Amino acid sequence: MKEDFLENIENLTIKDFVEMDIATFYNAVASIMQDLNYSFHRSVRDVQNYRRIEIWKHVKNHDDFTLVWVEIVKAGDDVTRDVSYEVLRTLNDLNMVKLAFFTNGGIDDDTKDVIDDKGHFIFTPDNIIETLLAIKKRNDIVIKPKLKRKKPKTPSGFVLIRNFLKENKPKEVKTIVPIKLIPEFRAKLIDRFNPVMDLVSSIEDIDNIDAEVRKKIKAFQFAMLTDLINIASLEFEEPFQWMKEDFFYMVQNYILYLGALAEFETVEEMDKYLEEFNRRKNNLFEYEVILSKIKEKQVTILNDTLEKLKKVSIYLLVAAIIFLIIFILL
Question: How far apart are CA 294 and CA 283, in angstroms?
Fold first, then answer.
């Protein structure tokens, strides 16, 4: 939920919900669901600017799912009976029993009775305000202890890599990567980092990472381990064999970085791994510089050869002329 929304929650009234757009209203929904220890799992349906249907999962019990239904009504309108029937159909279609229904308007008793059931929670502006006030009051009272990041004797990423390489050996017969395919190989490998980089950049506080985000980070870690084996099973045509080491250590350092991030290791260690990752990645773009120098050298050699051939041709021509003159005179 946006900070300014929470800060002014004491002044929020039911009237303020009347003209509230779905994006602002959704901040209140997210704040309440997170306070209930649920995190977003997936979207089911998004209808223009008045309805959003999602599934949220409990952060501690991954078998606990709740259907979150957000319904925006026009000023002065209430939630209609047909909406409540649609909610029930959706629950049935998804085979779900838990519901959190949020609306910025009213809902009459008859309509409410249709969806009111065990495990169903219905939030209208009055109890949304009440819940948000309780959350803010609790947050103001509870001072979260400052997380003490640790520096383990053996970083978690090293343990992960060591155990994986112990169980998985590179191929004995190496695959040769032709010079012309190196840029394509480099691009595909670097592109594999983009999704996890986007995920990491979305983290607002590295000392307070959501459990679901940590789970995704670790999944990316495991996926990258296979890249280490694949790189170790390759050979690069000379003069680019040196790139194998940079490819390998680029991947390794990002695995170490993700481990340090997910396991709350020191920021200094994280920065060290990220710096080495970027250094190794930048090294890989020396390929074009080296290739350009090789081509320049080849052109120079070719030009020198042509010059020599021209000189030899001239000598041969002069010799032929002299031979012809001597033959005529004789």
Answer: 17
Do the Cβ atoms of 39 and 166 come closer than 8 Å? no
Tokens of 294: 């090789």
Cα dihedral 102/105/108/112 (nearest 10) = -10
**What is the C-alpha to C-alpha distance for residues 124 and 25, in angstroms, rounded to an integer?**
11
CA dist 36 and 48 (Å) reads 27
What's this model's pTM, rounded to 2 decimal places?
Answer: 0.50
Give the list of residues 6+ apart from residue 174 with CB closer than 8 angstroms, or none. 233, 234, 235
Largest CA distance in the chain: 130
Instruction: Centre a 10 Å sphere on the Cβ of residue 155 and count the other Cβ atoms it contains.
Output: 19
Give residue-wise pLDDT tens across range 97-111.
999 999 998 888 888
φ and ψ of 176, to 5 deg: -85, 130
Structure tokens at 136: 């803010």
**DSSP code of residue 108:** -
pLDDT digits (tens, 9 = 90+) for 300-309: 777 667 677 7
Measured distance CA(102)–CA(89) in Å, rounded: 17
